[in-house]
Batch of 3 targets.
Target 1
Amino acid sequence: MSATIIDGKAFAATVRGKVSDHVAALKEQHGITPGLAVVLVGEDPASQVYVRSKGKLTVEVGMNSYEHKLDADTSEADLLALIDRLNTDPAVHGILVQLPLPGHLNSDLVINSIDPSKDVDGFHISNVGLLGTGQKSMVPCTPLGCLMMLRDHHGSLSGLDAVVLGRSNIVGKPMAQLLLGDSCTVTIAHSRTKDLPDVVRRADIVVAAVGRPQMVPGDWIKPGATVIDVGINRIEKPEGGTRLVGDVDYAGAAEVAGAITPVPGGVGPMTIACLLANTLTACCRANGLPEPDGLTA
Ligand code: NDP
């Protein structure tokens, strides 16, 4: 069998197109422009790249982008004061604090100081609780992107066996909640799981989010299963230089799976598209307007 490739790059472009159309309509009909504020503390090179790319795509879909770059030694009080100002700024509908924060800052405290209705990363404890209890929330972007691709590929996910590899707060746990919300039978696996190959072989849907290069070989995959590879790992190439790979052995898994996301070009582009979708959703909710179809969980 040769798997269908789920093209996250193309899917993300479609999502951004829908966001862009909706933003244009909001401006024309209501005079409202959604705004996303991104806060970067310090000079972590990877974070700088992410923030630049988020800002560029925010503007491309017609939203306002507000970048706040703070020194690495910014005090917690100053960061909280900025978040407080953004919370009350009516032009800002979404707030994202780029993680990881420098070690002297308490990430939980900082994230939980964001107004939950502007928490477009979906990491605030209120949004975590709302998602866990099946209520309307802001949904973390990476799992939301995975869910959109799965719904698009399968239609209904009801009754399917799903295995999520990884139990982090930003990917594994919210992913499991979303799959449960769509009536999958969900198993969450982690570093202490026994007989991991057997657990994965039961799955109609495998979402791999472990951060270990090509850890899942093709012979763990049930024939015909759908594989969503969240992992982004940089490895050395034999001929020199580096390349990005996922948590799944793509070549091996593509032989047996029914469908698979590549790395790069799978989940990654969907994450930023869902950040824009969440900002639009937050803007619609803040203004009591209907939410766009198909852009939320
Ligand atoms: P974390 O390191 O927070 O979590 C990793 C999880 O994998 C943990 O639950 C850990 O288990 C589990 N794990 C580690 N080793 C094994 C193993 N040998 N067998 C089974 N489970 C294992 O990572 P994140 O969730 O933040 O990220 C996961 C991956 O996804 C990374 O590669 C990251 O770069 C990528 N990522 C990609 C995004 C995108 O936009 N595409 C966005 C976010 C992340 P335990 O809890 O027991 O330690």
Note: Residues 8-30 form the longest helix (23 residues).
Target 2
Amino acid sequence: MKFFEHSAKKVFESEGIKILEGHVVYSPEEAMEVATEFGRPIVLKSQVLVGGRGKAGGIKFADNPGEALEIANELLKLEIKGEKVKHLLIEEKANIKKEFFLSVSNDRANRRPIIMASAEGGVEIEELAKTSPEKIIRYNVNPLKEFLPYEAREIARKMGVGSELISPLGSIIWKLYNVYDKYDAEVAEINPLILTDDGLIAADAKLEIENDALFRHQDLVKQNRFKQKDFAFVKLDGDIAVIGNGAGLTLTGMDMVTLFGGKPATFLDIGGGASEETINKALSLVLNYPPVKVVFLNVLGGITRADDVARGVIAALEANKWDVNIVIRLTGTNEEEGQRLFDEAGIPYEISLEEAAKKAVEMCNEIKAKEAGK
Ligand code: GDP
Ligand code: MN
């Protein structure tokens, strides 16, 4: 299974490899917000599982928030080698002095892991292998023995880098091998590893895990699947964020809000997901959308059970210490248990859709009246 760059980078970082601060965005507006927060030039990177995004026009730079909005809009319409771009990773634009290539993969012919490294990073390795194979250092690791830091430094030395880089580069090679080993990877790759004033940083990250070993890395798989999933999210011009589990239900929620005189700020269909992670993501998406004053979560338990949704909501609210103006409507399969959980957690809820929509509109009006009174 292949992992998106941003997921791979989190894994690399957890093993001590430096990455750039980054944010994943799903819309041009979010891209603009992130660019504003950074307050300096950024790079916008299409998150797809195919390689060669740079060449395909999937990596772009923006100097200001306005540019970020425009470019994100373009990138989110892009299809790279048949794969639709659904989200972008935004990072601060790095000042690159030099680019290296590092990878650890399976060498089937030799039945051992192989480390490949080159001081000529950035370009695709297949290309480099064709044009100047002598520039790629290859090193087979004995999987029965521990891979030692001095071996990694030896590889760095062979890459022909300055003496000051041998130790830091060796350290990253060693860490990358550990990622490969620990995560049952088929490929763990950094191309380019960049040299900046802040030292060596993984500017790109590729991670592919052996399918047969995925059961050992469920957390990572969940994260990746979730990111791949189409989370139908539309920003509107009102102030009540409508979230529902299912497109029809979400639309009904919006209609009800409108009927009682409110204006929806979002259409967000969370689909069949009820996990804490899904609810977390849904809430943070809408809470990061500035016009939102009230969240209206409309849940009808079907295949997704109401009590599971309740658990997801409670966990998400508690984990983030979120103090949200939220109206929850909860009915359907296992509603008694879900409602009991909410009662226990002290979270109010409604059963009737009309009541819930009405309450959301009233809550929003009260907030606006208070704000106007200030
Ligand atoms: P790939 O084409 O899918 O491998 O995407 P990469 O993440 O490797 O990016 C392609 C190229 O964009 C890199 O080789 C860099 O030259 C350039 N690039 C990526 N991030 C940055 C950055 O932060 N600053 C600068 N100056 N260039 C970048
Ligand atoms: Mn790359």
Note: The chain has three domains: 1-18+95-227, 21-93, 232-366.
Target 3
Amino acid sequence: MTENRFLQNLKVHLGRLRHTLGYRLTLWYGLAFVLGMAILFFFSYLLLTSSIQQSDQEKILLQLDVYRAEYEKSHSVTDLIRLLNREQEERQNLFLIRFADPVNRTIFARVPPQWRRVPVTLLENYPPRTEPEWLTVSAGEDQLEIASVRLSDFCVLQVGAGTAGRLNTLATFRRVFWLTTIPMFAFAMLGGFFVASRALRPLRELVEAVRTIITTGKTDKRVPVSPVEDEIGELVLDFNQMLDRIDGLLKGMRDSLDNVAHDLRTPMTRLRGMAEMALQSNNPTDHREALADALEESEHMLSMLRTLMDISEAETGTMKLSVQPLNLAELVAEIAELYQFVAEEKSIAITTEIPEGLMAAADRNRLRQVLANLLDNAVKYTPEGGKVTLSAHNQGDSTIITLRDSGIGIAPEEIPRIWERLYRSDASRSERGLGLGLSLVKAVVKAHQGDISVTSEPGKGSTFVVSLPLK
Ligand code: ADP
């Protein structure tokens, strides 16, 4: 029973292993190893075979030359036989020798005992045509390699030797090769698997982290960063950065949702109060007043919701922009004209310093909204008798629009926060506003692939710089 379960567990683990990258990497690595070894074996075997064969044949040819020289000295077969007999006494009878007349009939042959069964007469059927000619004759388990030459009197001389020695050497080579390759292969596979699973550990941790995030929805988990800066390390870093960003975005969304809820609660409560008061009164004038107030309040809420939707459209890239070349000097003059009245009331001088005919590329209505919001803030946050300057110029591939005021300025710690949705500084509470103007400005400028920045000194004034690409 337990054994059965063990086998089942093993099966499950092996099945899972088969789907891992480490397993596949090892398998490919193993295949490459086997292929490499096979190629190595094939070529070295070929080289070894041909070099031993060459050396064997050289030995035969050398012997053939000795006998030929002996015979050519006197053209006497007896002298040759004498030499052979001498050799035999010295036990150098390794070679098969056959001497035949010009029509290849055997005159004499010496066959060493191990090849006794070779029918020498068979060789009479193959008179040599080339010099030296090689014949291969089977001799039981051995194979004989025979070189034949014609002597100056057209007699035939043949010398041969067995290939058993060579085949033995090759068999030993094969054996040694397999005996070393198989353990090496096993070692390489194990090493490969170990290295692959070590290298893929951060990836597994990444998968774990993703799973935890998916199942628990918690984005605060981070993958441990390995000290090695490889591709997986980079992936882990990028992944953690992505989580940081998602975390930030989620927090931003939560915060703005909280803010919106909070900011809508006040006008909604006011609306309810108005309706309650109106219901308690029987005076038609009170009813009319309450309705007018409710209308104003709902207008205020609608404007806030519209702006919020515009911001999220611009931020997510779904805002429809019809970017066209436009005369910036004209547009700015139009907007400045619009605020002239409010400015004059506060004795604020609005100056525009824009070269005539200066062109920019933007969506006309959206850019008007951006500049109007900035100018509105400048006039709003500049005390009586102040100064607001609007200037612009083209620089390289961008149009730079600068709006400088001599207003109350922004505290350095507040500068990063003024772009947030619904953020209003304490200093600005006395002024009308939703705290959405700059968020919209920034989102629209970004949707134009542009940028916006601010420098400010509390009590002295602020300078907003918008840059828009010309193309
Ligand atoms: P608001 O409706 O409050 O003007 P904005 O998003 O336009 O909202 O601005 C956010 C905050 O940035 C303001 O509440 C104000 O504190 C600050 N601010 C914006 N423009 C200026 C300016 N020109 N001078 C000083 N403070 C400014």
Note: The mean pLDDT is 88.
